[in-house]
Design goal:
The complex is a heterodimer. Helices cover 0% and strands 52% of the residues of chain A. Chain A has no helices and twelve strands. The N and C termini of chain A lie far apart (41 Å). Chain A is mostly beta strands. Chain B is mainly beta.
């Protein structure tokens, strides 16, 4: 079956510095979409980014990600993090247009 | 904006007792889902439904039942609650045709003692 791997459980970054959250995946399907969801403390997860196009950069709220099918990756990046970016970030993939498979999540902690 | 509500928001249950978690959406979405969230495991799909009166097993259905009596409502039932079912449970909905984005409810924190 499908799987999504997020190797970092916690990433700590100083405010103003760049960050990259890693996401790799395995799937046997070709018609697949990829997502980043963000969950702030005591809130529901919500969509941050979505992509299904290989080698195309997708941006939202200062974050960006590029799907690289050659390396099975969809890393999330930001050039300058803010304190308000502290949250739990989930990478996910969807085949058949509806069922999501999530990674285990990466907590991003931004220090002042 | 899409709206998914859950009740109760938190619950304490006894081992062996029955627990019902409820979810209501006003998005007119066909798809509804139940996930559990655990540290180190992320979000895992328990059951989902794409039409009223029908449910499908997700990735971790053991110990859980689901019910979809109408398009708007989707319940998760723990017939015999166990300690291992202590977790935060999220309901979500999505549009059949639209995009794959799922809209999540606020979550229910379940503690089984």
């Amino acid at each position: 079956g499908d799987s999504v791997t997020q190797t970092e459980g916690l990433v700590t970054v100083t405010e103003g510095l760049p960050v990259m959250l890693n996401c790799t995946y395995q799937t046997a399907y070709s018609d697949v979409a990829f997502f980043w969801y963000v969950q702030y403390l005591n809130e529901a997860p919500k969509l941050l980014l979505r992509s299904s196009t290989d080698n195309k950069r997708t941006e939202h709220q200062g974050f960006h990600a590029t799907l690289h099918k050659s390396s099975s990756s969809f890393h999330l990046q930001k050039s300058s993090v803010q304190l308000s970016d502290s949250a739990l970030y989930y990478c996910a993939l969807s085949n058949m247009g509806y069922k999501l498979t999530f990674g285990t999540g990466t907590s991003l902690l931004v220090d002042p | 904006e899409a709206a998914v509500t859950q009740s109760p928001r938190s619950k304490v249950a006894v081992t062996g007792g029955k627990v019902t978690l409820s979810c209501h959406q006003t998005n007119n979405h066909d798809y509804m889902y139940w996930y559990r969230q655990d540290t180190g495991h992320g979000l895992r799909l328990i059951h989902y439904s794409y039409v009223a009166d029908s449910t499908e097993k997700g990735d971790i259905p053991d110990g859980y039942k689901a019910s979809r009596p109408s398009q708007e409502n989707f319940s998760l039932i723990l017939e015999l609650a166990s300690l291992s079912q202590t977790a935060v449970y999220f309901c979500a909905s999505s549009d059949r045709l639209g995009g794959d984005e799922q809209y999540f409810g606020p979550g229910t924190r379940l503690t089984v003692l």
